[in-house]
Amino acid sequence: TIHMSPSSLSTPNISENGHSMYIDTIDDNYYVTNLFSPILTSDKDIPLASLSTARCGFGIISTNNTIFVVGGYDRGDCLDTIEQFNPIDGKWTLLSVPMTSRRGRVSAAIINNKIYVYGGSNGQQELNTGEYFDLQSMDKWSPIKDLATPVAHGATCSDDSYIYLIGGCECDGDI
Questions:
Q1: pLDDT by residue (tens digit) across 84-128?
Q2: Exposure string over 160-172, b if 16+ CB within 10 A, otherwise e
Q3: Tens digit of pLDDT for each residue in 41-94?
Q4: Among 69, 114, 122, 130, who pairs with 118 as Cys (CB 3.0-4.6 Å)?
Q5: Residue 4 falls inside a structural domain
Q6: Contact 108, 60 (CB under 8 A)
Q7: 28 inside domain
Q8: What is the pTM of this model?
Q9: Which range marks the domain in which residue 81 is found?
């Protein structure tokens, strides 16, 4: 399910088991200021807690009713952090395991309880590298095979076996 906010500056985002959440980026600098989850039994949206770190251009996935946000930019600085949203207590937790590379405009997906991030930008150039984070051990990020070309802003989706990275851009133009 894709759910759009009433704001014209909204980004559709994640869905899991028929429940959708979206992020409303309405501040003057396009940083996340509000997160919402629609209540399935009413026409109202429920605001979620703010992220621990202001960010834009991040990757986002959901699994087992938990949201993970990775990378992005905080006032122009690329981030290497990952945050986890727990719907039970309604809070975001900044995890203590940074990615091996700072990445904004990053693509993210999940397969077999591992979060994969691809490409993005380190603030100087687009990246063709990727890494994964195992949600079982939650102790480190590990490198994966490089992409054939650097890419930022790519869309991702996955099934039980594959991650599909679609579109995106690099400095020389759209892919």
A1: 988 788 888 999 999 999 999 999 999 999 999 999 999 999 999
A2: eeebebeebbbee
A3: 455 556 677 888 888 889 999 888 888 999 999 988 999 999 998 878 888 899
A4: 130
A5: no
A6: yes
A7: yes
A8: 0.78
A9: 10-174
